[in-house]
Design brief:
The protein is mainly α. The chain is 56% helix and 11% strand. The chain has a three-stranded antiparallel β-sheet with strand order 3-2-4. It is elongated, with a radius of gyration of 20 Å.
């Protein structure tokens, strides 16, 4: 079993997309991004005959998805997703680290309203805390990645 490279997991966690599950192959160390539609295609009754209807690049991917579902399920572990990682919680945690009450208030004002993520990011830039936030955010994702490794009995390297 390969050691997990924590930064590789953090990079994947930064790019989370709805309707996509990211899997780590604990044997090869490869990452497999699977959209819900990929599962639907592979689960169709006549998949093995229909696969020829897809372009070459997609066939290879769909074969990997097929192996994930039917042959190598024990080799793959799903990474945390948007339901496991709440960016809003990380934003609130960051706000609590700010000692300047005015800046803290401005960021709190962005929370829980329409467009809060965009407003929060814009406000970070405006008050000069963008770099600090992204360092904080990356550190939180690193903590999540390490916790995920420990929960799945995976050795890791930073």
């Amino acid at each position: 079993m390969k050691k997990v490279k924590i930064q590789k997991i953090v990079d994947e966690l930064q790019m989370r997309i709805m309707d996509t599950t990211v899997y780590y192959n604990k044997i090869t160390g490869e990452i497999l991004n699977v959209q819900d539609d990929d599962f639907r295609i592979v689960e169709e009754d006549d998949f093995e005959n229909d696969i020829q209807n897809y372009p070459e690049w997609q066939r290879e991917h769909l074969k990997q998805v097929y192996d994930l579902l039917y042959n190598d399920i024990d080799n793959y572990i799903a990474l945390p997703n948007n339901f496991d990682i709440k960016d809003s919680d990380i934003m609130e945690e960051f706000i609590e680290t700010i000692s300047d009450n005015n800046k803290k208030y401005q960021l709190r004002n962005c929370m829980w309203q329409k467009g809060m993520y965009r407003k929060f990011k814009d406000k970070l830039i405006y008050i000069g805390l963008e770099n600090e936030y992204y360092k904080f955010y990356d550190e939180k994702l690193k903590e999540i990645a390490i916790k995920w490794c420990k929960e799945n009995n995976l050795e890791y390297e930073e």
